[in-house]
Amino acid sequence: GFYSSNIPQLPPDPLFGIKARFALDTHPNKVDLGVGAYRDENGKPWILPSVRLAENLLQHSADFNHEYLPITGLKSLTEEAAKVILGDESRAIKEKRVVSIQSLSGTGSLHLAAKLIALFFKPADGTTESPVIYISDPSWANHIQVFETCGLKTARYPYLDAEKKVIRINEYVKTIEEAPRGSVFLLHATAHNPTGIDPTPEQWKIVLKAISDNGHLPLFDCAYQGFTTGSLSEDAWALRHAIDTEGYKFPGVLVCQSFAKNCGMYGERVGAFHVILPVHDEALNSAVLSQLSKVIRSEISNPPGYGAKIVSLILTTPELKKQWEQDLITMSSRIFGMRKALVAELERLGTPGSWKHIVEQKGMFSFTGLTPEQTDKLAEDYGIYMTRNGRASIAGLNGGNVKYVAKGIDGVVR
Ligand code: PLP
User: Fold this and answer.
1) What's the subunit arrangement here (predicted)?
2) Has the ipTM of the complex gone over 0.95?
């Protein structure tokens, strides 16, 4: 039976736990800087204008229905999603080396990656051991359990120098060099979560060369395309460089793509998983797709349709695509404006310490440098919530609360 002696109680998920505590907080000026979801200047969830237009088009189209999608998902979504992330001119697409399948947003895509690796990626021919998945220290809190629940071992690579707020590039590269040949390196494609610090192009080249030289498999997690610079192609630079540069010799490249953030479709679970094979091999493409299809069929039968149809319409309708690109600029520039406003206010208050890193960090988050104790105090005294590692979702700031947040930070660091 189910005995309490062998079902240990787990702590609540840290992020969703914050959401719950925030909901119960009665503080009149409370601010949620926890979960990474975009908010507009009134602090409200934002339905992107491009999404509204697509929804309208979809619901008024004569053939709109709620039938099952194919096991592999909506073809127009997966094909266009590959182009958005790999580029219209992608060599890998032209050479038919890309296997794409629809996923339950970014998390579902990472799960498919974990499954594929656990089942079929071996560090060398003839070995039976699965590879170790190297994850940045720090990283998105869910990464470790997504891989470990599929039976894979994880390890960390040094990433952030918390003191200097730069990447520990030498230790990072040393870890790549010392990892057993054929390990997997999970790379944040853009807008690193939680640090907001991405490698420079020069650092990317050093990292990717080391991964290639040591026979490792790069796995790009791309949850924030468009949030770093506002441009889809600029934010895909590292990943496209890895895939399109002939000098690298990877055993393949895996790409996990989420439309949760960049389409504001969080709850609709729209995403794709792409396997880029090193050489064109029709039989291998087909075998990989068949195995991924089996995973999908056994776990969710087929992926959800509604969000997929909306994103597909955006990607295939030029006016909607243009509107989407505009929406990405709206979101990324509002966030950047809030970074500047927060720092200006902290400087005006003379808050001890340097806060310039908040403006320099990219994407939705800032790794503020606040200690766990300071974040606890911020929640207790001010009703301002962020994760205990000091990560604040800058998208939760707006003209109405930024001064209050600065005042709270000022209060807890003094
Ligand atoms: N990867 C990273 C780094 C993330 O921050 C997130 C979401 O916060 C995800 C993946 C997956 O998000 P979703 O499953 O909602 O697409």
Assistant:
1) Homodimer.
2) yes
